[in-house]
């Protein structure tokens, strides 16, 4: 049903207005509250990406409520009505709402999901002026660009891979994998997740990313690149044999173990820091992930993207675009980055301002670092877009870490899987 056809009878029927407002401020009409602020319906994918976490949305809801209060002060004409959904069910929710003409005005998801939602026709491509594009890191814009050159949404923030540790158990985080191994031998317990996205940071320590990038391009890796990938596999295998290096299936399990004192150090994401800060308080340590003998760790990012829903009225669409413009201005980028300390700005000017004021793990993430990790982000994004490939890679890693698959065979399998699923 078209928005204008829906709005007309609503204006004539007070009961319909009450019903509309009581059912989550449905989109499509230029809805306002009692103060004449326009209400924008927002559908947000949980950035936790953890299906079995019982308190999955708790931290996000707190931040969302606080953000709404701050936004009211800076943008009094806009009021948000957000709903947080599990990432894996967002697509289904949007299909139901959009097909009924009651879809959200804005959709917040990561870059991979934003591209998928646009391809499915559940969001609209966004047109950014040259001036607006200049406010956003070019690498971030590339990650939301389709093959035809349109943009699936506007990047707003970046979540980083970090090391999180309990300062009561560990004075400082290991700066190298060698130090990590030595500390584990002395009783410090380290935790990591088994999937490629969460392990990718360690590839850089062995220079193993080249083999995956070459395979993704459909080419055969050089002997040297294959050897470095095999060496990374060998490290994973050896680590699985160490009593105090533990591999778990998801980040929720790692955080729980760190909070309960069962682990002393874990790999983590900056989006997960609110829960850890609340539980560990001043005992939470944050640091860059450790480097290797071959090179530096290569953490990747999760890009938070704000996309346009399909069912907005002209007024709602205009307000959505005004809000998007506000969110990438240096003031907003700086203010929210420093307040929540969970994301890194996509605005280069704001990033320069805040880089020295964010926690230790963020400080190493300069604009040069942003360029350096682009390949890793591209590889992980390509794998995430292919569910079957992702499942096959996970099977290979599980067999390597938990079963008898050799590093040599695992490296060859991984290259073949990526190459054949271009």
Instruction: Quickly count the helices.
Output: 21
Q: Give the tally of β-strands.
A: 11
> What distance lies between the first and last C-alpha atoms, to the nearest angstrom?
39 Å
The top level CATH class name of the largest domain: Alpha Beta
Q: Roughly how many Å is the radius of gyration?
A: 23 Å
Q: Number of folding domains? A: 2
Helix content: 40-55%
Name the overall outline: globular
| CATH H-tier superfamily of the largest domain | Periplasmic binding protein-like II
Question: Taking all residues together, what is the mean pLDDT?
Answer: 84
What can you tell me about this protein's structure?
Helix 3 links the parallel strand 1 and strand 2. The N terminus is likely disordered. Helix 10 runs parallel beside helix 21 and helix 15 crosses helix 16. Helices cover 48% and strands 15% of the residues. With 422 residues, the protein is an alpha/beta fold. The radius of gyration is 23 Å and the shape is globular.
